[in-house]
Design a protein that fits this description.
By secondary structure, the chain is an alpha/beta fold. It contains four helices and eight strands, in the order βαβαββαβββαβ. Strand 3 and strand 4 form a beta hairpin. Helix 3 runs parallel beside helix 4. Bound molecules: iron/sulfur cluster.
């Protein structure tokens, strides 16, 4: 039976990044060519493309996804997109996520303080939610391949 792999859509060639660009990763396409690939982008469906950049900001000891210019809190919108993916695909064999993204990054996403300086690097908001929802599924970054 083919494995089911959820992959950040920008790594698959979708133009879903904030600036309308993609981050196609040929080695991912080759590695998983015989698997069932499920493209996943939690930002594009709710924020559109192109869109304002967003960042994780530590506010009142909580991680919030805030848009860089208009300061809109989009945390709930992104978490909702993860939960929709979980509902549609309750069983996955692996998850592969784009590094450094405020949504998809795995330990590589800058966490800012309220003055917008970098406090540390941690998981993106969607990555953290995916870890919580798929405790038994292997989750890696494209940098791990
Ligand atoms: S890193 Fe994640 S949220 Fe950003 S464009 Fe790629 S799939 Fe979408």
């Amino acid at each position: 039976m083919k494995r089911k792999i959820l992959i950040s859509a920008c790594l698959l060639g979708e133009n879903c990044r904030y600036d309308g660009a993609t981050k196609t990763n040929q080695s991912i396409l080759d590695t998983f060519e015989n698997d069932v690939i499920i493209p996943f982008c939690p930002e594009a469906p709710v924020l559109g493309t192109p869109r304002e950049r967003i960042s994780i900001v530590l506010i009142d000891k909580q991680y919030k996804l805030i848009s860089d210019e208009t300061q809109k809190d989009v945390t709930g919108l992104i978490i909702e997109q993860v939960d929709l993916a979980v509902k549609s695909h309750p069983n996955l064999d692996m998850i592969v996520l784009k590094s450094k993204s405020p949504s998809c990054g795995l330990g590589t996403t800058p966490i800012l303080n309220e003055d917008r300086s970098i406090l540390k690097y941690a998981d993106g908001i969607a990555a953290a939610r995916l870890k919580e929802k798929y405790p038994n599924t292997k989750i890696i970054s494209e940098l791990d391949l």
